[in-house]
Amino acid sequence: xxxxxxFLKVMVDSGASDLHVTTGAPPQIRIDGGIKPLNHxxxxxxxxKKLCYSILTDAQKRKLEEENExxxxxxxxxxxxxxGNVYIQRGAVAGAFxxxxxxxxxxxxxxxxxxxxx
Length: 118
Hints:
Layout: H1 4-13, E1 18-21, E2 28-31, E3 34-37, H2 45-53, H3 58-67, E4 69-76, E5 80-89, E6 92-100, H4 105-113
Antiparallel strand pairs: 1-2, 1-6, 2-3, 4-5, 5-6
């Protein structure tokens, strides 16, 4: 099975803003406000738990299990930074992850107007 990092890479390479990992559906990405399923089999509860837990520390796993929800941020070297919300829904672990650009749009546009960027 693919890893969460594999799905995050597809998300970034596709220009998507979000990745959704939910039981009963394939992983899905959000592009221009629309949801697009990835070419992957439907995820089972064990799959979503394995995917989401792979990026959590032991302390974060405990907090998720106590509170049924966890907000976090993390980075994947050479790819991007992400904000995530991992939660327990109908007894299964699910997650939503949003890409945070390394260079904010304001800085990127400012560099462009100054002739320092593309």
